[in-house]
Amino acid sequence: MARGLILAALVGLVALSSAPLPAAAQSGDTLPPGVTWDDVNRVGRQMFCDVCEGIPLDECESIACVQWREEIARQLGEGRTDDEVIDYFVERYGSEVAAIPRDPLDRFIAFAVPAALVAVFGVIGLFQVRRLRQRGHRAGEVARRSAVRLQQRPVPADVDDDILTRLEQELEGLDQ
Question: Is pTM beyond 0.70 here?
Fold first, then answer.
């Protein structure tokens, strides 16, 4: 039993010591007074690494991203707002580093186009459902009318009554 406890403790220590630290905590640099890694990561979540495509800055572990996070911390320590920091990086490295477009028109387009597409396809879908329901009601009416019509259909005079009787019996057997 003691052996099992010691083994479990060793496995736990290895697991804890090998767990990766957050990217911000790995740089080991001290932050300016009043700035926390949460503040830096809040800004970093709104930006993408210029070197590593498609990776948010708060998750990237490249040397460039560590330097960018240090620059973000420095600027936040100087009292700049999140938007001012992001605008600085956009001005310096291009609009691709911002997760959300900085230009108000571009931002409007980025959010309005998907919303408009959802609305248009929703309206089309509603019309299609309504049309299919109406078609279903009409189909039921046609089926009822055709059943009445089939029962009243005239039989040619030259058909033998025995054949008609046998045919009706066979058709009734199919319904069961």
Answer: no
